[in-house]
UniProtKB/TrEMBL annotation:
HAMAP family per the UniProt record, alphabetical: NusB
Ranges of residues in domain NusB/RsmB/TIM44: 29-152
Listed name of the protein: Transcription antitermination protein NusB
Taxonomic path: Bacteria, Pseudomonadati, Pseudomonadota, Gammaproteobacteria, Pseudomonadales
Gene encoding the protein: nusB
InterPro entries membership: NusB-like_sf, NusB_fam, NusB_RsmB_TIM44
Similarity comment text for this entry: Belongs to the NusB family.
Keyword Transcription: yes
């Protein structure tokens, strides 16, 4: 299948109705909003409650899984030390030197790799790449791809072994 940019989920599509969205579409939208919220938290240092309340007022969660958004936001915050510890060996520079957008995308994806075992690692990597393409700098998706592939081989060993069979 040839990937076409028009195939991407676009919540502003006038022909899109909530009933046409799959669970994965709603989770993709939640990841987009969570990336923005994590970035806002990283830059502003505002409380999670304030950020979540603002996002709930400013965004239409008809198209996004609000519970998954909440889980990501609080899951990344609660497990930040474990996430950064898992990320560190996969990076060739210190976490503090990373671009904030790339860092937020990789933290979100690492949280999913660690705690969302029901989501295949390939989906998590693909979603991270797409988030980096949308919100990151020109080639940040390549960096994110490399780090997340490395991370997935470390955190999802059983899934990798099963896939190779």
């Amino acid at each position: 299948m040839i990937y076409d940019e028009s195939d991407r989920f676009n919540p502003r599509d006038p022909y899109l109705t909530a009933s046409k969205l799959s669970k994965s579409d709603k989770r993709s939208a939640a990841r987009q909003l969570a990336t923005q919220a994590l970035y806002q938290r990283h830059i502003s240092g505002a409380s999670l409650n304030e950020i979540e309340a603002q996002f709930c007022v400013d965004n239409d969660f008809t198209y996004a899984d609000q519970n998954y958004f909440h889980d990501i936001l609080y899951g990344v915050h609660t497990n930040l030390t474990k996430i950064d510890t898992a990320l560190a060996p996969c990076l060739d520079l210190h976490i503090k030197r990373l671009d904030p957008v790339e860092l937020c995308v990789m933290r979100l994806s690492t949280w999913e790799l660690l705690y969302c075992i029901d989501v295949p690692y390939r989906v998590i990597i693909n979603e991270g790449i797409e988030l980096a393409k949308v919100y990151g700098s020109t080639d940040s998706h390549k960096f994110v791809n490399g780090v997340l592939n490395n991370m997935a081989t470390r955190l999802r060993k059983a899934e990798f072994k099963e896939r190779k069979r």
